[in-house]
Amino acid sequence: MEPVLSLHTIGFCYGQQPALTGVDLRLMDAEILGIIGPNGSGKSTLLKIMGGLLTPTDGAILLHGRPLRGLNRPELAREIAMVAQENYFRFAFTALEVVLMGRYPHLKRLQFEGQKDIDAALHALEATQAAELADRPIHELSGGERQRVLIARALAQEPRIMLLDEPTSFLDLKFKREIFRLIAELSRDTGLTVALVSHDIDLAAMYCSRLVMLKQGAVYTTGAPEDVVTTANIKAVYDCPVLVDTNPATGRPRTSIV
């Protein structure tokens, strides 16, 4: 099976400071790929490169076999949607207005949204179980509600790939689980391909079909959650002693600090 997105020996520097070195990565159709690693390991940088927001200093990225840099912004947005870690809104847009912003790659310059776009936005809100939030100002929503709306905005782009940077940051345990469940359902029901960055190793291991563990800007290991989340790997990458066992409810690995 051909990957939908492939990265070949990717390197990236902030000024003279290397952030990524020799990263090879394949994102397969309809999978959920989790990117984990300690702070400063290059997770968010890698996600931005996958989404075309940063241009690598070395290597190549192929989307369906085509060079990513050959696509213009609307073409890229119809293929890849990104939910950033932080989102700020200067004005009190309603949730529906925020989701409608995701329709921009399907509109011509200076074209206003039509009924097709409104229907797509409403469908995205329904898919994220946020339809009842449509008329509420984005500033009045809870963290979990706001995150559902942002995912709906990405869905409104009608992408084949969704990239999420720490989608459960600042959320409590209940909402973290709900957001991961939502992502898993969207991938399962629509065939959406997902790559997400997470600091929550246990949730990533529970809901992702494959994990990539980064260390100092390079891929340390990749594979099934049970092959990546091991005591030895976490000790080597995070420099933290942990106990790894199997969650009896899910069969996936879980960690405990010792």
The CATH homologous superfamily of the domain at 5-87 and 162-257 is called: P-loop containing nucleotide triphosphate hydrolases
- Which CATH architecture of the domain at 5-87 and 162-257 is right? 3-Layer(aba) Sandwich
Secondary structure tally, helices: 9
Q: Helix fraction?
A: 25-40%
Task: Report the strand count.
Answer: 12
Shape by Cα distribution: globular
Largest sheet: 6 strands, mixed
Span of the ends, CA to CA: 41 Å
Strand content: 25-35%
Look up the CATH topology of the domain at 5-87 and 162-257: Rossmann fold
The parts where pLDDT drops under 50 for at least 5 residues are none
Strand order of the largest sheet: 6-7-8-3-9-10
**Classification by helices and strands:** alpha/beta
CATH class of the domain at 5-87 and 162-257: Alpha Beta
